[in-house]
Amino acid sequence: MVTMGEAWEFLLLLAALTAALWAAFGGVRGLHAWAWELRLGAVARSHLPPGDMGWPFVGNMLAFLRAFKSSDPDDFVASFSRRYGGTGIYKAFMFGTPTIMVTTPELCKQVLMDDDHFVPGWPKATNELVGKKSFLGISGEEHKRLRRLTSSTINGYETLSTYLPFIEKTTTLTLERWASKGSIEFLTELRRLTFRVVMKIFLCSEDEILIESLERVYTDLNYGIRAMAINIPGFAYHKALKARRTLVAVLQNVLDERKAMRRANLASTKNDTMDKLMEVEDENGRKLSDEEIIDVLIMYLNAGHESSGHISMWATVFLQEHPDVFEKAKLEQEEIRRNMPPMQKGLTLKEIRKMEYLSKVIDETLRIINISFVAFRKATKDTYLNGYLIPKGWRIQLWYRNVNMDPQSYPEPYKFNSSRWDDFVPKAGTFLPFGGGSRLCPGRDLARIEILVFLHHFLLDYQLERLNPNCHVQYLPIPRPVDNCMARITRIN
After folding, report:
1. Which family does it belong to (predicted)?
2. pLDDT tens digits for 445-461?
3. In this predicted model, what pLDDT tens digit does every residue of 110-154 receive, in sequence order?
4. Cα 81 to Cα 100: distance, rounded to the nearest angstrom
C-alpha cells in the first residue's frame, strides 16, 4: 500500500522532472536564438524587437503550420501579440532564416515604400519555383525594366478590350456546361476556367488536353511555393520542382518554335503575350532573354488563374450566403444588361466600369480571403523601424492578412459586409490584396475583369447549391474548402 508520504514524494519527483525537461527545452530554444543574435553585438541585440525564434532548424514553423491547419490561422500572429504586447513587430525564425514579422498597416506601408532598405526576400522555395528572373526575385533597376517591358502586354484599355470577348464567351459556355452536369467541384472547375482564359491570352492555346494537364502541374507548383525547401520525395517542394521543370520544358518548346518561325520569316498569327514579350525591347535595344520570358510567363500563368479562380468561388459563396447582397448585386447587373445597346453582342469595358457594387463585393472578398496573406522582404542594411532594429540580411514578413483584418480599419473584420465600402476609401497601407508600393501586382486589372465577368453572368442566370456548406476550410497555400466546394449549378431562367 502506497503511503501519503510516498505519494507526495512521487508527485514532487514528477514535478521536478517536468521542470527539468521544461528548462532543458527552454534552454535549447534559448541557445538557438543566442546563436543567431550573438553575431550582432550587445548593442544591436538590445534593440531587436521582442519575440521568439523557436526551435533549432524549424524555428516557428511548427506553430505556424499548426495555426494554419486549424480553423483559426490568425492565432499564430495573435500568440506573439499576447506574449510580447501589441508592438506590431516581432522577431521570429521562419522558413530557415531569422525573420522580423511586421503586422500593422503603418509599419507594413513603411517597408513597402522603402525600396532602398528593403528588397525582395522570398524563401528559397518561392524563388526557385517561380523563377529567379520573375518579378519576385529581382529588384532595383532590373525590376523596373522588366515591369516596364511586360506590363503593357497585359494592361491598358486596348489590351484589356481585346481580351474581354474571349473571357466572356469562355465563361458563358462553361457555365452552360456546368449546369448540364450533376455535382461538380466548383473550385476545381473555376480554376480550369480561369486557366483556360490565361492560356489563351498568354500562349494562344485552346488545346483542352494541354490545358488540363498543365493546370494540374500548376497545382503541384503552387503547393510548393510556400513550403520548406526540402528536396526529398514526399515533400511538397520536391514535387513542385518536378512541376517547374515540366513547365519550363513546355514553354521553352513553344518559344523555340516561335523563334524558328521568325528565322524562316514566317509571321506568327498568334499575337499573344509570348509574341509580345519576344518583341519588346528597352531604350538600349535590349530584348528579354529566354529565361526572363519563361519566368514571367510562369508567374503570370500561376497568379492569373489561382487568384481569379479562388476569389470567383468565394465571392459566389458569399453572395449565396447573403441574400440581401445577392439581390443588390443582381439588380445592378440587370440594369447594366437592360442598358446595353440593342446591337451590342457582349460586355465592354464601359459596362465593366458600371459594376460598382459588384466591385465592392470583390473587395470585401479579397479582404476576408487574403489570397496573398504574407509577403517577404530582406534588409539591405541595419534599419530601424518603430524604434526596433532590423539587422542587415534578416528577412521581413509583411502580414497582409493582419492588415486586411485589422479591426481599427474594418470593424467586425470577420463579418462579410460589402456595404462597408460605401463612400469608403481605405487609407494607404490598410488594404493590401495585391501588395503595394513598387511591387503592386501588375495583373490585378485582368484578374478583376475575369472575376466581374464571371459574377455578372452567374448572378443573372445561375444559382449555386453547396453540398457540404459547413465543411472545413484549409488555409494553405490559399484558403479553400477541403471538398473544393462540391456543388450543383442550376440555370434559373
Report:
1. Belongs to the cytochrome P450 family.
2. 888 999 999 999 999 99
3. 999 998 999 989 888 888 988 888 877 777 777 777 777 777 777
4. 14
- How confident is the model at residue 22, as a pLDDT? 47
Grid coordinates given for 309:
479562380
Lookup: cell for 324? 440581401
Residue whose C-alpha is closest to residue 165's, from 354, 352, 297: 352
Sorted by sequence, the CB contacts under 8 Å of residue 136 that are 6+ apart come out as: 120, 122, 126, 127, 130, 299
Mean pLDDT, rounded, of the chain: 87
3-state SS of the chain is: CCCHHHHHHHHHHHHHHHHHHHHHHHHHHHHHHHHHHHHHCHHHHHCCCCECCCECCCECHHHHHHHHCCCCCCHHHHHHHHHHCCCCEEEEEECCEEEEEECCHHHHHHHHCCCCCEEECCCHHHHHHHCCCCHHHCCHHHHHHHHHHHHCCCCCHHHHHHHHHHHHHHHHHHHHHHHCCCEEEHHHHHHHHHHHHHHHHHHCCCCHHHHHHHHHHHHHHHHHHCCCCCCCCCCHHHHHHHHHHHHHHHHHHHHHHHHHHHHCCCCCCCCCHHHHHHHCECCCCCECCHHHHHHHHHHHHHHHHHHHHHHHHHHHHHHHHCHHHHHHHHHHHHHHHHCCCCCCCCCCHHHHHCCHHHHHHHHHHHHHHCCCCCEEEEECCCEEECCEEECCCCEEEECHHHHHCCCCCCCCCCCCCHHHHCCCCCCCCCCCECECHHHCCCCHHHHHHHHHHHHHHHHHHEEEEECCCCCCEECCCCCEECCCCEEEEEECC
What are the residue ranges of CATH 1.10.630.10 in the chain? Answer: 127-491
CA nearest 241: which of 129, 349, 103? 129
Q: Angle at Cα 9 formed by Cα 5 and Cα 11, nearest 5°?
A: 115
Distance, CA of 404 to CA of 410 (rounded, Å): 8
**CATH class entry, domain 127-491:** mainly alpha
Q: How far apart are CA 86 and CA 90, in angstroms?
A: 10
C-alpha cell at 355: 459594376
pLDDT value of position 24: 44
Amino acid at 15: A
- Whether the CB-CB separation of 114 and 384 falls below 8 Å is answered with no
Give 400-434 pLDDT, tens digit per residue.
999 999 999 999 999 999 999 998 888 888 998 87
The β-bridge partners of 384 are 389
101 neighbors 77 (Cβ within 8 angstroms): yes
Q: What is the pLDDT of residues 81-93, one digit of tens each?
A: 999 999 999 999 9
Neighbouring C-beta atoms of residue 458, cutoff 10 Å: 22
Question: Which residue in this structure is represented by grid cell 531587436?
Answer: 48
